[in-house]
Design a protein that fits this description.
Helix content: 40-55%
Largest sheet: 9 strands, antiparallel
Structural class: alpha+beta
Radius of gyration: 37 Å
Distance between the termini: 24 Å
Length: 1025
C-alpha cells in the first residue's frame, strides 16, 4: 500500500491537532453521559404463570391444573425448563426460555405462551381463577425506604405512603414504585355461629341483606326538553356505624347487626406478608430506575427529595433508608476508578522509565486520547459504567498502550539511526502498522468467546469483549495517527550523520550482547529448550487439578441475607415470633447499620443477582446492612453460631450477596421421577450421603415434611336425608374460619372489603368444629357432627415439579470457605450406588452453582471454533504461510504454564472470569508472536541468514515486547484487590510473564527447529507452503 497514514498525519499537523481537541472534548462529554449502575443490564428469560383454585389441595393443583399447563408449555420449541410449585389453592409455573434468544425473539415467545395457555383455558377445572402472566419480575429496586410510626396504624401509614409515592414518582429517572408490607383494611362482621343458630338467623340472610343495601345500581334519569336529571338512591354505607346499626328482619323479629355480631374495622387477618424495619412494623417504598438512567444521578435526586419529604411527616412518623444502591455503586465505581488511576500511573511510570522522558510523554499523552475515543464509542453503543465495563477498562489499559509503545519505540530507534522525523514516522507505519493491526485484532479475538456466549453468564460478562475490543481498535488508530504527530512534536531531533559515518546502532550495548548469546544458545540447543517448555506445559496440566474451581465470587457489598424457614404449614404468627427474637439479638449487636425483615416473603430485588424467594407463611428473610466488610464477616460468624444455638427448630441460612446470575444454595442435587414417595425416599438417601461430607452444613430437602390437614368425611346418605350438601358444608366452614365477602365499603379512593366470619373463640378452637351449625335446605340447622366425621391426617403442603416430573432438591450450604465445585466433586462419587439403583425414569442431576458454571462454560466453549477461525484467518492474511501460522498458534498455550503457577502461588480459584482471562491471554501471546515472526521474515527477505534473522529480529523486538508485556502485567496489579476480577488479573499476570519469556526464547528455538536452521545458512526467500 503506497499511502502512508503516519506520514499524512505528520504533514497535516493542524488537522491532527484539531482531531485531538475534538476527540478530547467529545470524550469528556461522553464520559459524563455514560449511565452508571452496579451490574450490567441482563435479559430475564423467564415468565411466571400463576393459577388459583380455591379449595383444591396441592396434589389437585399439581395434577389437575399445573400438569395441563406444563404439558402445553413444553410444546414450545424454545423452552429450556418448566419449573412449578403447587400449594393448596395455588400453582405457580416458571417457564424458562433458551438463553440464546434475543429480546425480540423472547417477546415473541411470551406472546406464543399466552396464546397457547389461553387456548387450553376451557380445559381447566371449573372454579379455576387465572392464569395470570408475569414476565416483568426482573426490576431492580435500588432504593428502598421504610415508613414507620409508633402509635400509627397501617391505614394512616398507607395514606402517607401514597402521598410519598406520588412525590417520588415525579423525580427524574424514577421508574416503578412498589409499596411493601401493606396490610389491606377489612371490615369484619364476626357473627357467632352458635348464637345465629339459636335465634334462627341464617347467615345467608345477613349476607344478602347487607349486599343489597350497599349495591351500586342505576336508578335512571329524567329526560326533559331542556336537561337531563340523574336519580340517586341513598342507603349505601358511609360509615362503619351504619353497618353496625343496619336492621335485619328474621321472621317477625328485627335485629340490628350490632345486636348479634361484633362489627369492627381492622386489617387482614391472618396478616399479609409484613415488612419490619429495626424491629417496627413498616410500609416500604421500593423505587426502581428507568432503563438507561444513571443510578448516581437518581440517588442524588432521591436524597434531596428524601430530605424534603422527611420534614413533611407528622411527629412520631419517620422515613428511613433501607437500601441505598447509589451509595454501593458510588463506593464500587470509586474503587474501580481508583484502580484505573493506579493502573494509569503504573503504565505511565513504565513508559517514562523504559522509553525515556520524551518517548514516555508521547505514550502518556496517547492514553487520554484513546480513553476519550473509547468513552465516545461506549456512549454510542450504549455501554454504561458498571463493575464489568470498569474492570474491562482497567484490563484494556494495559493493552491499549502496546501499539503506542511499539510505534514510538520504532520511531525513536529510527531517529537514533539518523532518520528525520517524517521518515521515521513513515518507517513505523510501513514496518509495523499492519503486523500491529493483526496483533491487535488477534488480541481482541481472544475475547470473542465472551461475546458469542449465549448464556446468562455470557450476557453478564459480555461487555468485557465490547470495551476491550473498542479500546484496542482505537489504540491502533491512535498509534498510526496521533503517536507519529506527538512523536514529531516531542521526540528529540537526531544529529545529521557526517559523511562516511555509520548510523548509530542502539542495540550495540552490553545487555543486548549478552541477550544475543543466550538467544544463540537457545537456537543451537533448540531440542533442550523445546523439551523443557513441553515438560513445563505438561506439569502445568497436571497441577491444574489442584486449583480450586469457582463460578463467581461473593459480592463486596456489606449486606448479609438471613433466611428463616419454619416447618411447612407453620403460621405467619409463628414465623413473626421467631423473626422478633432475631430482631432483639440484632438490636444489641455493634457493627450493624440497619436491618429489615420481610415476614412471609423474601426481599424485593434490591440488587440484580438476588435469588428471590417465593411468598410463604413459614418463611422470613432479613437483610442486615453492616458498617464494613470486616464487620460483615464478624457478624456472619456470630449469626451462624446464634442461629445454631438459639434457633434449633428453625432452618436458617446466612449468606453474603452473590455476583453473577442468581443460583441460591451452593450445593444442589435434584432427584426427579414419577412417584413422589419414591422420589422423596431417594432424595433422603442422597441427603444422608451429602451430610457425610465435612464441608457442608444445613443439609435439607426443599420440600420434605407434610402439612397437617383435617379431613371431613361426609356421610352422604345422612347428609342428603337432612338436606345438606357438600357445598353447604364447605361454605359454612369458609364463613366460619376465613370469612365470606359481604360487600365493599367505599371511602374516597379506597375500597374496603366487608367480610362475615365466626368469632375468635370459634375460629381458634378446633375442638368446637363438630358443633358447627349448618343450614339445611328446609331452613333448619344441624350440627356438623351429625353429617361428618373429622379425621386428622397429613398431606403434601407443597409439590415441586420440573418438566412435569415431581422433583426434590437436596440443598446444602458451605460455611468453612470451601468452594462448591470441589465439594460437589467429592460428593458425587459417593452417590454412584444410589444412582445405579434408581428405577428407569428416575434421575439424579447436579444443580446450583456447578450447573450454572457448566452452562456458562459450555456457552463460552461454543465460541472457541469461531475464535480459532478468526485467528487463523488473520494469521494467514498477515503471514501468508501455513507453517508460520501454525507456529504462532503453538505459542498460545504457553500462557497456561504461568496461569497455573500464579493461581497456585496466590491461592486464587479458577473461576468463570479467570477462564475468560485465560482464553483472552492466548490472543495477547499470539500478538507478540505475530510481530516477532513477521520481523524475522522481513529480515530474511532483506538478505539475512535465517539464524541471523532470528537473533537480530528477536533482539530488535525485545524491548517493545517486554515493555508491552510489562505495561499489561503491572496494569493488572490494582485489579488483584478486586473480589470479582482478582483471579482474572492473577491469571493474566502469570500467563503473560511466562509467555513473554517463552516468546523471546522458546519461539526462536521453535522457528529454528521448524526450518532446521543451521549455522551459516544463507539468504532464503520465503517459499509458499
Amino acid at each position: 500500500m503506497n499511502f502512508n497514514l503516519s506520514i499524512w498525519a505528520v504533514k497535516n499537523r493542524q488537522v491532527v491537532f484539531y482531531l485531538i481537541l475534538l476527540i478530547s472534548i467529545a470524550g469528556a462529554i461522553a464520559y459524563t453521559k455514560l449511565s452508571q449502575a452496579e451490574d450490567p443490564p441482563i435479559s430475564w428469560h423467564a415468565m411466571m404463570i400463576k393459577v388459583v383454585w380455591p379449595g383444591a389441595s396441592a396434589e389437585e393443583m399439581a395434577l389437575q391444573v399445573g400438569d395441563r399447563i406444563e404439558k402445553k408449555l413444553m410444546e414450545s420449541g424454545e423452552f429450556k425448563e418448566v419449573i412449578s410449585y403447587s400449594r393448596p389453592g395455588e400453582t405457580q409455573i416458571t417457564f424458562l426460555t433458551q438463553e440464546y434468544l434475543n429480546p425480540q425473539e423472547t417477546e415473541e415467545t411470551w406472546y406464543q405462551i399466552r396464546k397457547k395457555v389461553s387456548d387450553i383455558r376451557h380445559t381447566l377445572p371449573q372454579g379455576v381463577v387465572g392464569p395470570f402472566f408475569n414476565d416483568e419480575f426482573g426490576t431492580v429496586y435500588g432504593n428502598i425506604y421504610a415508613l414507620t410510626g409508633e402509635g400509627y396504624d397501617y391505614a394512616v401509614l398507607k395514606d402517607y405512603a401514597d402521598r410519598l409515592q406520588l412525590q417520588l414518582q415525579k423525580v427524574k429517572d424514577v421508574g416503578r414504585i412498589e409499596l411493601l408490607g401493606l396490610q389491606e383494611e377489612k371490615i369484619w362482621i364476626e357473627l357467632s355461629n352458635t348464637k345465629a343458630a339459636t335465634i334462627g338467623l341464617p347467615t345467608e340472610a345477613v349476607l344478602k341483606a347487607l349486599n343489597d343495601q350497599n349495591a351500586v345500581a342505576p336508578a335512571g334519569f329524567f329526560e326533559t326538553d331542556e336537561e337531563r336529571v340523574q336519580l340517586r338512591v341513598t342507603g349505601r354505607f358511609t360509615s362503619v356505624d351504619e353497618i353496625r346499626n343496619f336492621p335485619i328482619r328474621v321472621g317477625d323479629r328485627t335485629f340490628r347487626i350490632n345486636d348479634v355480631a361484633d362489627v369492627r374495622r381492622s386489617f387482614s387477618d391472618p396478616p399479609a406478608p409484613r415488612m419490619r424495619f429495626m424491629g417496627e412494623n413498616a410500609i416500604g417504598l421500593a423505587v426502581s430506575m428507568k432503563a438507561g438512567g444513571d443510578i448516581l444521578v437518581l440517588g442524588a435526586a432521591l436524597d434531596k427529595e428524601f430530605a424534603r419529604l422527611q420534614k413533611t411527616l407528622p411527629l412520631g412518623m419517620e422515613l428511613a433508608k433501607v437500601s441505598d444502591q447509589p451509595v454501593a455503586v458510588k463506593r464500587g465505581v470509586g474503587e474501580f476508578l481508583r484502580a484505573l488511576a493506579e493502573a494509569l500511573a503504573i503504565v505511565l511510570i513504565v513508559s517514562f522509565f523504559s522509553l525515556g522522558a520524551r518517548s514516555g510523554l508521547v505514550v502518556a499523552l496517547s492514553i487520554p486520547i484513546v480513553l476519550a475515543m473509547t468513552f465516545c464509542l461506549m456512549y454510542y453503543f450504549n455501554i454504561g459504567l458498571h463493575k464489568i465495563s470498569l474492570g474491562a477498562l482497567i484490563l484494556a489499559l494495559g493493552l491499549l498502550v502496546d501499539d503506542a509503545i511499539i510505534a514510538v519505540e520504532m520511531m525513536a530507534v529510527k531517529m537514533e539511526q539518523g532518520f528525520d522525523r517524517i521518515k521515521a514516522a513513515g518507517f513505523a507505519w510501513s514496518n509495523t502498522a499492519f503486523p500491529m493491526l493483526t496483533g491487535t485484532l488477534i488480541t481482541a479475538a481472544g475475547f470473542l468467546p465472551i461475546a458469542t456466549a449465549k448464556s446468562g453468564t455470557g450476557e453478564y460478562t459480555g461487555s468485557i469483549f465490547s470495551v476491550v475490543t473498542i479500546a484496542l481498535l482505537v489504540s491502533w488508530i491512535a498509534a498510526v495517527i496521533f503517536v507519529p504527530y506527538l512523536g514529531y512534536r516531542l521526540l528529540p531531533a537526531s544529529a545529521p550523520l557526517a559523511g562516511g559515518h555509520a548510523a548509530h546502532d542502539p542495540y550495540d550495548k552490553p545487555f543486548y550482547a549478552r541477550f544475543r548469546k543466550v538467544l544463540g544458545w537457545c537456537v543451537d540447543h533448540r531440542k533442550a529448550v523445546l523439551l523443557l517448555t513441553l515438560a513445563a506445559f505438561i506439569t502445568s496440566l497436571v497441577l491444574f487439578k489442584f486449583i480450586p474451581v469457582q463460578f463467581f465470587p461473593s459480592s463486596w457489598r456489606y449486606e448479609l441475607m438471613v433466611d428463616l424457614k419454619l416447618a411447612e404449614g407453620s403460621s405467619l404468627k409463628a414465623t413473626e415470633v421467631q423473626a422478633a427474637r432475631l430482631e432483639k439479638l440484632l438490636q444489641s449487636q455493634p457493627g450493624v447499620e440497619n436491618y429489615v425483615a420481610y415476614v412471609g416473603s423474601g426481599s424485593p430485588r434490591f440488587y440484580l443477582p438476588l435469588d428471590q424467594q417465593m411468598p410463604q407463611a413459614s418463611f422470613a428473610q432479613f437483610v442486615v446492612l453492616t458498617k464494613s466488610a470486616k464487620e460483615r464477616e464478624r457478624i456472619r460468624t456470630w449469626l451462624i453460631e446464634v442461629m445454631d444455638e438459639q434457633f434449633p427448630t428453625v432452618r436458617s441460612r446466612i449468606s453474603r450477596l452473590e455476583n453473577g446470575p442468581p443460583v441460591g444454595y451452593p450445593i444442589q442435587l435434584r432427584v426427579s421421577g414419577e412417584h413422589i414417595d419414591q422420589v422423596r425416599a431417594l432424595a433422603r438417601q442422597v441427603a444422608d450421603k451429602v451430610r457425610d461430607n465435612p464441608h457442608v452444613v444445613n443439609v435439607h430437602l426443599n420440600w420434605e415434611e407434610p402439612s397437617k390437614v383435617v379431613r371431613l368425611q361426609i356421610d352422604q346418605d345422612r347428609a342428603r336425608a337432612l338436606g345438606v350438601s357438600t357445598a353447604d358444608v364447605s361454605s359454612a366452614l369458609e364463613g366460619l374460619l376465613s370469612g365470606q365477602t359481604v360487600s365493599y365499603y367505599r371511602e374516597g379512593n379506597e375500597l374496603v372489603e366487608v367480610l362475615q366470619r365466626g368469632t375468635s373463640n370459634e375460629r381458634g378452637q378446633l375442638a368446637q368444629l363438630p358443633s358447627l351449625s349448618i343450614q339445611t335446605s328446609s331452613g333448619k340447622s344441624v350440627a356438623l357432627s351429625q353429617v361428618a366425621t373429622l379425621n386428622y391426617e397429613f398431606e403434601e403442603g407443597i409439590i415441586w415439579r420440573r418438566d412435569r416430573l415431581p422433583t426434590v432438591t437436596v440443598r446444602a450450604d458451605i460455611y468453612d470457605g470451601s468452594l462448591p465445585a470441589p465439594v460437589t466433586a467429592q460428593i458425587m462419587p459417593t452417590l454412584t450406588d444410589i444412582e445405579a439403583r434408581m428405577p428407569d425414569g428416575y434421575y439424579l442431576e447436579v444443580g446450583g452453582t456447578v450447573e450454572d458454571s457448566a452452562t456458562g462454560q459450555e456457552s463460552v466453549n461454543a465460541g472457541l471454533p469461531l475464535f480459532l477461525v478468526v485467528v487463523v484467518t488473520l494469521l494467514m492474511l498477515q503471514l501468508r504461510s501455513f507453517s508460520l501460522s501454525a507456529m504462532v498458534l503453538l505459542t498460545a498455550p504457553f500462557g497456561l504454564i504461568g496461569v497455573v503457577l500464579f493461581l497456585l502461588v496466590f491461592r486464587q480459584p479458577f473461576g468463570f472470569v479467570a477462564m475468560l482471562g485465560t482464553i483472552a491471554l492466548s490472543g495477547m501471546i499470539m500478538r507478540n508472536s505475530v510481530i516477532l515472526i513477521d520481523q524475522i521474515e522481513k529480515d530474511i527477505l532483506d538478505g539475512a541468514t535465517r539464524r541471523q534473522a532470528i537473533i537480530d529480529a528477536t533482539v530488535r523486538r525485545f524491548r517493545p515486547i517486554v515493555l508491552t508485556a510489562l505495561a499489561a502485567v503491572l496494569a493488572m496489579v490494582p485489579l488483584v484487590r478486586s473480589v470479582f476480577f482478582g483471579p482474572m488479573a492473577v491469571a493474566i499476570m502469570g500467563g503473560l510473564i511466562v509467555a513473554t519469556g517463552l516468546t523471546l526464547l522458546a519461539l526462536p528455538a521453535l522457528y529454528a527447529a521448524w526450518y532446521r536452521v543451521k549455522p551459516g545458512d544463507g539468504p532464503v526467500v520465503r517459499a509458499a507452503d
